[in-house]
């Protein structure tokens, strides 16, 4: 996607912080309509009840998410992503976030397995899309399209666009990961409204990384995602590095690097 200006460098301490989440910070961007998305090393689970700092995680998620969003942009899936700025930051378009977590599932795991008693690892007969209302105080409750339209979080047309984009993202990601020996079990994505004058487009926002996906090694079933942290399995950074390495983002010979991975130039 073309971007008509070169971003000005603004020192960290001069930037206005717009929002701080559990794993990312949003700063004002160099031009109106832009923001800087900063990836932190914080890992949280169970609505912040569990917290740790995993040295280098933010760098890996920045690189993995950049890789995925660049490819989605190239395929014509509209996203907020403009470009990566440095090891931890991306330039993004400012969007009005739709307060929904959209979960796409291909294989039963996590809350679906718990809620419906389906053994983890069961291939689903078709991909399933679920909506959760983004609200920490309420623990992100699952909601239906009826709730979403009744409470005005999104219109029926917005929901149609969100579902169509979610399916395209799932098709792309499933193939991408299958090609590197990884089974895409499920993932969470978020969407925003991008205003261009009076015109509005729904675009993919936030991030796509092992923090927001379940990724299982195709042959061993090893978990290569945030469940390593949620379930105290250890080796979270190594798992994220393995995902990055398979996607060709890291050099094959780069071992664990607490100060961040080696860039492939
Ligand atoms: P589950 O509903 O089974 O806990 O999660 C389904 C999928 O969505 C998993 O891939 C999980 O990582 C992702 N997911 C659900 N909620 C969140 C969240 O609040 N943050 C992140 N990063 N991922 C989430």
Automatic annotation (TrEMBL):
Entry-linked CDD domains: SAICAR_synt_PurC
Organism expressing this protein natively: Siculibacillus lacustris
Matching Pfam families: SAICAR_synt
Gene (name only): purC
Keyword terms: ATP-binding, Ligase, Nucleotide-binding, Purine biosynthesis
Recorded GO MF terms: ATP binding; phosphoribosylaminoimidazolesuccinocarboxamide synthase activity
Family: Belongs to the SAICAR synthetase family.
Name of the top EC class for this enzyme: ligase
Gene3D superfamilies noted in UniProt: ATP-grasp fold, B domain, Phosphorylase Kinase, domain 1
GO biological process: 'de novo' IMP biosynthetic process; cobalamin biosynthetic process
Lineage: Bacteria, Pseudomonadati, Pseudomonadota, Alphaproteobacteria, Hyphomicrobiales
Annotated protein name in UniProt: Phosphoribosylaminoimidazole-succinocarboxamide synthase
Residue intervals of the SAICAR synthetase/ADE2 N-terminal domain: 18-246
Pathway(s): Purine metabolism; IMP biosynthesis via de novo pathway; 5-amino-1-(5-phospho-D-ribosyl)imidazole-4-carboxamide from 5-amino-1-(5-phospho-D-ribosyl)imidazole-4-carboxylate: step 1/2
Protein EC: 6.3.2.6
Recorded superkingdom: Bacteria
